[in-house]
Amino acid sequence: MTRDTRESVTDGAQPPSQGFGEPRRSSPDPATSGGGASRPPEDDETAVRLDHVSKAFGPLKVLDDVSFEISKGKAFCLLGRSGTGKSVTLRHIVGLVRPDRGRVFIEGRDITTLKARELSDVRKHMGFLFQNAALFDSMTVGDNVAFPMRRHTDWSDSEIRDRAKKKLADVGLENDFDKMPGDLSGGMKKRAGLARAMALDPTILLVDEPSAGLDPITAGEIDELLVKTKRTGTTLAVVTHNIPSARVIGDEFAVLHEGHMIARGSLQDLDASDDPLVKAFMRSHGGG
Ligand SMILES: Nc1ncnc2c1ncn2[C@@H]1O[C@H](COP(=O)(O)OP(=O)(O)OP(=O)(O)O)[C@@H](O)[C@H]1O
Ligand SMILES: [Mg+2]
After folding, report:
1. What is the pLDDT of residues 137-195, one digit of tens each?
2. 0.85 cut: is pTM over it?
3. Which architecture does CATH list for 1-7+46-125+202-288?
4. 159, HSE (Cβ side, Cα atoms, 13 Å)
5. Whose CA is nearest to atom 7 of ligand 1?
6. Distance of CA 241 from the midpoint of ligand 1 (Å)
7. Which of 59, 230, 250, 280 lies 20 to 30 Å from 239, alpha-carbon distance?
8. Chain-centre distance for alpha carbon 52
């Protein structure tokens, strides 16, 4: 399966159908048969846990026995080369992809066996910025940001508009409320996607390459916004190639390589790693 096929099915042209921008499922992805009640294995401090997750798409093994956890209120940065499974990992966290083996826990709840409606309830508390922003092309930018509020709350129209404006202002798009996504630059789309992901003040915010395509000043502003969001108690999962930005945002780090987690730990742990790939990553100064 090529990247293009995948993107067009899950990320791209298809508008989101959930508040945080959930695209259609790429495949039936049958639930793993868990059987019986799910047992939360973690303490109250864990927001997200992947437990021995493996996933293949046809013959392509993407994740192989991947385990990690993200502490509540912390920022977890997932690093790794292109095509190594970072976006697929984020999709597991929001339940858009189900593992072939292993389990995904959100605040102690096993989401791998949840039915669509229960999963939708869990997702209400999660915001997701897709790698390509995935805005509804037929709605204004303001309506894109308002979408999750209209879908998931009973707030009045004026309340929703005000809040959407505030969320757009947070990402520097206060003057772009009435524009169509097609009239935005790539970086502006990304910021609008971030505003939409944050529309409902999620407890868990997942962002896939938030600074890709942004100029360094805007990228720095997005970093600041993410740090500010973290300070309010939100848990962050950030996929990024931008190591300076990861250094600013991150508390916990992991490096994926060819479906395996090759390093995990604090910034100090990764900086001290002997692994050549981890070293190369940690020494880089740029990237999207
Ligand atoms: N729904 C899908 N069907 C088939 N293959 C898929 C699907 N989703 C992802 N893949 C494949 O899984 C592999 C990992 O993809 P993923 O998007 O997670 O990479 P990534 O680490 O995010 O890369 P990048 O840094 O370029 O964004 C790729 O080979 C991709 O083509
Ligand atoms: Mg990706």
Report:
1. 999 999 999 999 998 899 999 999 999 999 999 989 999 999 999 999 888 898 999 99
2. no
3. 3-Layer(aba) Sandwich (3.40)
4. 7
5. 6
6. 15
7. 59
8. 20
**61: which residues sit within 8 A by CB, 6+ positions away?**
54, 55, 259
- Segment 110-144, tens digit of pLDDT: 999 999 889 988 988 999 998 877 899 999 999 99
Domain boundaries defined on the chain: 1-7+46-125+202-288, 138-196
Q: Which residue carries 């709350």 as its tokens? A: 153
Residue 286 CB–ligand 1 contact under 6 Å: no
User: Measured from the CB, is residue 34 less than 6 Å from ligand 1?
Assistant: no
Structure tokens at 6: 């995948």
Mean pLDDT of 34-50: 65
Ligand nearest to the CA of 79: 1
Q: Tell me if 13 CB under 6 Å of ligand 1.
A: no
**Alpha-helical segments (H) within 35-130:** 86-93, 116-123
Of 182, 203, 216, 194, nearest to 288 by C-alpha is: 216
- What pLDDT does 86 receive? 95
pLDDT at 91 over 80: yes
82 lines ligand 1 (CB under 6 A): yes
Tell me the CA–centroid distance for residue 57 and ligand 1, in Å: 9
Does the Cβ of 24 fall within 6 Å of ligand 1? no
Residue 45 is encoded by which pair of tokens? Answer: 């401090």
